[in-house]
Amino acid sequence: MFSSDTVTFMMNRLLQGCCVLVCGGILFLASCAPPEDEDTAPVIPEGVQINEIYAAGEDWVELYNSLETSKDIGGYFIYDNAASKYKLPVGTSIPAKGFLVFVCNDLGTGLNTNFKLTSEGETVYLENASGTLIDRIEYPAIGAGQSYGRFPDGTDNLAISGSQTRGATNGGNQTPAIVSTTREPLVPGLNQTVTIKASLVSAQQLTGVNLYFRFNNGSFSTLRMTLQNQQYTATLPAQTTTGTVEYYLEAIGANGTKSYEPASAPNKVLSYLLNTDPLPNLFINEFMAYNLSCCPDRDSGTDEFDDWIEIYNAGSVAINLGGMYLSDNKANPFNHRLPTDDPASTTLGPGEFLIVWADNSPEQGPLHLDFALSNAGEAVGLYYIDGRKIDEYTFGAQSANVSWGRTTNGASTWKAFSTPTPAASNQ
Ligand SMILES: [Ca+2]
Ligand SMILES: [Ca+2]
Ligand SMILES: [Ca+2]
Ligand SMILES: [Ca+2]
After folding, report:
1. 178-274 domain in CATH 2.60.40.10?
2. Which ligand places an atom closest to the C-alpha of 306?
3. Strands 60-65 and 71-72, how do they pair?
4. Chain segment 83-114, per-residue pLDDT in tens
């Protein structure tokens, strides 16, 4: 039996969480409303807000105190996942009109949160010590050097900025942000012009968008980009000799603020290589996109049944694959670049086979890629240091532990192999 206190407590809980209807003197408890979650709960502002978010590199969240007095936020919670909230240490406070930055690096101590942020966009939440949501920001995809925040500080005007202001005022105007660039063609050849296009977001008039470029370490020239179909566009001149073209973009706002693509230009630049080397005599010879229990990758210390790609050197000389690319996307040959600093791992002798693991784990070694192959079918390709295609193959849905390969090595006919031969001749 329940004691009357227990019954009263239970009734109170029901009345708190449920909609009460009274009809003809009969009390009905209607179906309980779903519990409030962090995405629908009302935000009750307290004067401390999430003011700026940086998510492409060393991630961080900047808080801002818009009050005239300092604010104790010890015991408050910051999180991107309600199941694992980071509790701010006792004694944490923000000065009046001041900023406090939390580095989002998984450490979970002091000013380091127990989570990281994704540059693809997500939601960050701030709760007080009693669990009341006091701020919530859903940020979009943001690139390196860019941040998402309130302009001016503490207001409801949220925008991407082309330059972050970690621990300092966001000011009233965000810097124009270059959110994407394209190059056409992606793999240019000699005597070809190259079109560069950029998409920007900016709350202010732009004074100009410039494309800087140089050839073979010469001095940089400037082209003014013009707006065409909502994209800033300029055309790089054709080059008649082999070499490297380097370029970067600059956007200048009417208030004089500037941002760059890449964000750290000109220390870091975009580039393409114009090359007339004959392509090496290499083949994608065999691959497995659905490795359930066939052939383990042991490089991490435990058996991992990962996708693999076998490359075959059909030529008569050793070839170092360092600097060449592998991709599962024909539209982007530059997906994964094999390292150039480990020739012992990346050099393939004549008639030999090399296994590269498509396991999304480049940290496991020089022959591990940052993509995997889809069981449902896609493409796999090998590309030269300038992006030119060496070999490419498109495949359909795969069966577990069955590889696809050329029969025989380097030949043009492909077939399924129920007995795969990784790092060995195709039977
Ligand atoms: Ca700031
Ligand atoms: Ca797979
Ligand atoms: Ca692995
Ligand atoms: Ca083989």
Report:
1. yes
2. 3
3. unpaired
4. 999 999 999 999 999 999 999 999 999 999 99
